[in-house]
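Need a sequence for this fold. Nothing fancy.
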């Protein structure tokens, strides 16, 4: 996205990087399609702000600077309000703009007099236009805003439809894994008799970055920096990783690559820093599987030896530990989760049963039956994290709870026994084996 502020090397600055001295750079710029100046913050300007924000969001995004004269670009500091300007502008948008586009606002104080300064707002290009201000679809027309005509409205609706299609398409990415039978055979647990191969059960988290335009193709240097940060995060977590090149992404696999039969977790990192996390479920095999089946039969369940059982505790450790890597990565990169759309999916998981040796679980399944993934289509709806409901979003909490929810764990139930089971299975033990 365009930025009127540059570093000494000429790279665009983000709003968070802008300082008081940077305001001098505006002297060489004129108002235009993505930049607008206002000398003062008065009732007239306040009335126009929702219209300006909506027009930027309906176009290519832009910057509004209040406290700069539009004729000679001189700095005309405005008084610093008692409230946060982000809250003031946010309230204006809640009352006058629908839907509310993404924007950031900073009040940059005058070093010589901190009671005054300049308001700088950055409005992102909207993902789902049209954005309507006071009943009118506003778009940028040169250096001003104006009502959109019919062709522009058609284009805006087309943009929203295309973006939804891009997100839906992204949430169908698949990372290759070998079949479970091939893996277990390599570990010395070949079945007694031949049987059809079972695809590896996978838990997928999709994070589609909404604030980047497809046209803003990252350089090879940018991609290498992203991968270097991800490697550092793995190292900080005491984990090894292997980077594999794909045609449009980098796949960072946990631990060392073990050849075609590697079933360790993988993070697929795209140039715009969209992310897909794939975690293979920890399946019981060999004697562990025999013992679990015996205990389920003792609980009164008719168990088929062909069934696959997921170790609930070890899988939760694996899922949440890998999701924690993502949380640390976005912190290292200075990205907010609110820039993402998120969804989850369970691949090859239909009918796979949860297993826990907790007496509470065994008592529960004896009364109500085993928990298992009961659908063949296990992709969740897409959540948009900039909706004001996810200010404290963490990938770790999202991943852990939604994995088990999709596998049949009764989250949000008003039944005391359900809630006791949830508490038992969502709690992890420090002694649990952590398998990446």
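Here you go.
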């Amino acid at each position: 996205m365009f930025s009127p502020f540059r570093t000494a090397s000429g790279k665009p600055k983000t709003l968070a990087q802008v300082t008081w001295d940077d305001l001098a750079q505006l002297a060489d710029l004129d108002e235009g399609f993505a930049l607008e100046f206002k000398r003062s913050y008065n009732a007239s300007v306040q009335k126009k702000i929702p219209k300006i924000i909506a027009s930027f969001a309906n176009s290519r995004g832009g910057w509004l600077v209040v406290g700069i004269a539009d004729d000679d670009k001189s700095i005309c500091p405005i008084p610093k309000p008692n409230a946060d300007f982000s809250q003031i502008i946010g309230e204006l948008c809640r009352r006058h703009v629908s839907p509310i586009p993404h924007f950031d606002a900073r009040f940059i104080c005058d070093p010589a007099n901190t009671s005054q300064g300049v308001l700088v707002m950055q409005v992102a290009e909207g993902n789902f236009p049209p954005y309507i201000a006071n009943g009118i679809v506003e778009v940028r027309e040169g250096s001003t805003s104006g009502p959109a005509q019919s062709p522009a409205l058609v284009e805006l609706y087309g943009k929203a439809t295309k973006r939804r299609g891009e997100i839906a398409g992204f949430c169908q990415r698949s990372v290759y894994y070998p079949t479970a039978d091939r893996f277990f055979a390599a570990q010395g647990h070949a079945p007694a008799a031949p049987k059809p191969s079972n695809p590896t059960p996978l838990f997928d988290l999709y994070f589609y970055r909404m604030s980047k335009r497809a046209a803003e193709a990252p350089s090879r240097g940018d991609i290498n920096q992203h991968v270097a940060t991800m490697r550092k995060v793995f190292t900080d977590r005491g984990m090894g990783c292997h980077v594999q090149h794909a045609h449009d992404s980098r796949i960072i696999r946990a631990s060392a690559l073990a050849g075609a039969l590697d079933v360790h977790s993988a993070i697929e990192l795209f140039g715009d820093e969209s992310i897909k996390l794939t975690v293979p479920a920890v399946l019981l095999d060999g004697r562990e599987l025999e013992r679990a089946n015996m205990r389920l039969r003792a609980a009164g369940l008719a168990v088929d030896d062909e069934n696959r059982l997921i170790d609930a505790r070890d899988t939760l450790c694996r899922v949440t530990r890998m999701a924690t890597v993502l949380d640390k990565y976005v912190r290292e990169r200075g990205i907010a989760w609110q820039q993402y759309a998120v969804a989850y999916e369970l691949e090859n998981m239909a009918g796979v049963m949860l297993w826990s040796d907790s007496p509470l679980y065994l008592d529960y399944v004896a009364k109500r039956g085993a928990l298992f993934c009961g659908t063949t289509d296990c992709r969740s709806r897409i959540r948009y994290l900039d909706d004001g409901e996810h200010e404290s979003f963490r990938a770790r909490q999202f991943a852990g709870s939604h994995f088990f929810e999709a596998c049949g764990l009764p989250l949000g139930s008003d039944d005391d026994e359900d809630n006791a089971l949830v508490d038992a299975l969502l709690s992890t033990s420090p002694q649990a084996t952590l398998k990446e």
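For context: The longest strand covers residues 113-123.
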